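Appendix B.2, paired examples.
Example (i):
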Amino acid sequence: MNVESHFKGWAKPGPVPPGARLTSLSSLKGGEGRGEEANTSGKADAAISAAAKNPSPQPSPRLGGERGKNSAVLEAGAPLVVEPHETLDAISGHFRLFQLRDGHRFSTDDILTAWYGTSWCPTARTALDLGSGLGTVGMICAWRLPGATFVTVEAQRDSVMLARKSARYNGLTERYDIREGDFRDAGILHADEKFDLITGSPPYFPLGDGVESEHPQKLACRFELRGTIADYCTTAAKHLAAGGFFACVFPHEAVQLARVVAGAKAAGLVIVRKRPVVFREGDPALVGLFGLMRAGDLPEWFRGQTWTEPELVIRMRDGKIHPEYSAVKLAIGFPP
């Protein structure tokens, strides 16, 4: 079956999801997204085929800008429709992501979190995504880990409803449990639930530390309305399986880096490895990718060390995509 895709032979796109097989392009009325990371243009393309265009990475809008309505319960048999305020955007392979046209848009930070976690925990059978938002991180992980089962936790109803639509489109409903709530609340995650891989793309700043968006989805993405990096570490430590891996992204400048270190130590985690991310060659690293494990799962001599990897550069000085980031994109089902 010929299904329109942004893939032109660069990599295997994986199985064709039911949303692409069973939903005609003409039935996906009202939204036609470009699949761009952190796309804030608000401009729509003229046809649903534009969802297959090449993503172009942007620096994290959570560091200086903004990052994305559907409040009705999504019935299991309801038709998948791209509402006028939504877009349906390409992510990994044939997978697509429902997003708000003028709300939260997935970013390079999300993509890198999914890549880092699945790269350093490639045999995970169970996975948890904390503060999962639209589901970008979890769904890229699900594309890379086709045999794994997932639990995701998100507090915002609008984001949960979009993620559920995406899960249905991508054929993930049998192995993808989307829970609505604050992951810090009792009952959202049971004490005996353990996961090989946990991912998180936490908000970066306390309230008052920057310009606050009036859009609730964007506000919660950038500012700590429901938990800090320390809360993410605490929850991850409670729910990691023996030998499990927690991957997250957070600002890399000194004050913010100290918050990651402190949160990890308080939770009994060790930062096993970290990788600074440079969005433009020659600039300082704005964010870092962190891989953490429980101290008790590691040899005692290993617990006091962190391997700092070479910087990952997103764009070269001339603005072109760096060759390594092109290779990263291929690994997660994106065109380079």
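Example (ii):
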Amino acid sequence: MSKKPTTRKTTARKPAVEKVEKPKRVRKAKADSWRRTDGRAFDELRTLKIESGVLPNADGSAYIEMGRNKILAGVFGPREMHPKHAAKPNEAVLRCRYHMAPFSVDPRRSPAPSRRDQEISMVMRSALEPAVFLERYPRASIDVYIEILEADGGTRCASINAAAVALVDAGIPMRDLVAACAVGKIEDHLIVDLGDYEDKKGQSDMPVAYMPKLGKVTLLQMDGTQSVEENEKALALAIEGCKKVYEVQREALKKKYGIDQPQDKPQELPPVEPEEEHSKEDEEQ
């Protein structure tokens, strides 16, 4: 038997339609949207609190809380220099001692002074000397003691801020207060007043000490790498930070000595009544 020829049904093919992909919307990140690990803006300082006259046995003292930093500063002098062979015949010697308590960091550190303590002591002296009238106290010494009770990064700048207030509290004449603030770089962003995490993980660190009234820089250090443009911008940010610290220093001293505080009004005396004039006739009688 012969097979019937099979017929295949042919259907017209539809023309292929190319899918046009819609361009994805790319959201541009705003420069102001970037925040630091603690939520601060790039130019925002940590909470700052300064008190003066906290140590009764010292000639001058100050206590500062800068973030979680807790630091005491004590000033003794001007007093006779010991040993005497280290005295200068034309000016006083400013000596600074920076020390971190064993419980100030975790894990605990050795109570013996380290090379870092010696370096910061020297840095503090060079930052404070231009502000003090050392020539008024020849053959004398002015001793500044700094004790770090709790460290949270930036103890160098915080110690300079406390020491400047303590020097004024001791009655030592100064050209101006010295305010210090650090600027660094992390994730290619410049930030002001570095915390502990930013200090350890950042790309650079630039501590600056500044006398706002005279407009002079007394300390400028830099660790890490920055471009010339970044250095100029970082210095401008540090000076603005120093000016903010300067206002807090002034308010602490005003509060201690009662300047610009409301005072009790003097009691008003009752008006004096004029004496009655006696006539000449009464005088003759």
